[in-house]
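Assemble and predict.
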Amino acid sequence: MKKVPALKDGDFTLTESVAILLYLMRKYKVPDYWYPQDLQACARVDEYLAWQHTTLRRNCLRALWHKVMLPVFLGEPVSPQMLAATLAELDETLQLLEDKFLQNKAFLIGSHISLADLVAITELMHPVGAGCQVFEGRPKLAAWRQRVEAAVGEDLFQEAHKVILKVKDSPPADPTIKQKLMPGLLAMIR
Amino acid sequence: MKKVPALKDGDFTLTESVAILLYLMRKYKVPDYWYPQDLQACARVDEYLAWQHTTLRRNCLRALWHKVMLPVFLGEPVSPQMLAATLAELDETLQLLEDKFLQNKAFLIGSHISLADLVAITELMHPVGAGCQVFEGRPKLAAWRQRVEAAVGEDLFQEAHKVILKVKDSPPADPTIKQKLMPGLLAMIR
């Protein structure tokens, strides 16, 4: 599919981060809270995983690209109107994440961390890496982030986000790479 | 979430079609082939369900809106350039569906129908309803559609797609409804 991430386990290859997480979770029989057996709790994880594709994931990725990556590739910033629209959409999605999913719970699904939190936090770290203050003025979301970091372990959390948190320091792209990626990039700024 | 479909089962409400299907499948203990216990087969269903959100679903929906629904709401067709771009993207996605998912198998995941086929066919019926010839020149995909229709049962298949197959005959939208839906509609044609 020419996409990352991809998993290769022996002869078996698999794309799509959500499918890969579910595969690993089943293969290694991880603790139940990651993807609960309980019918309704499991449905809440599924609901989040389905919802995020066209909302949080889309808008976090667009924020990163419009704020940092496209300027690096194109050599000039995207229009202020487009950037403002992208950040406004991200803001609306963060509000939904807080109001409809997190609510007053410790984690997105309830009192334990689940795959939903893991998928959500990795997306949110994209605009954070781009310098967006996604947790500012959102104390509930900020406290949740701390709980996720503590549940995963601070060292692992920092290691997992090391590259994305340094993305602002990316050197200008090599012209050959730039040329190759351009068609895909232009599709992204539509 | 102000979205359809939504499920209400006693006090439990759930959004997202994929989450709803998985919930019903687990609650009513349907035959294994819909969402196999086998680790790799299950991962293939998950892979398709994750993939389709931003690809087949997006492009089928856009084709329907750009070809039929927006003209009904706006009272004029979308620009030929935009419609052509939308249909070209749909075509690319259909190619991926055929090459990467269906390949030479009877169904998307293997020799049996699964949730992947069900989700895929309902999306494809959107551009079909809009008058796009999505199966023309694609004999493999057309044969697969026949197998899905036979597996589901022809009567149920026709009943499930009755509304979408008549969408071309929609009367012009009521001005009040038009006004209300306009902001969301304008976001859709970007």
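Chain A has nine helices and two strands.
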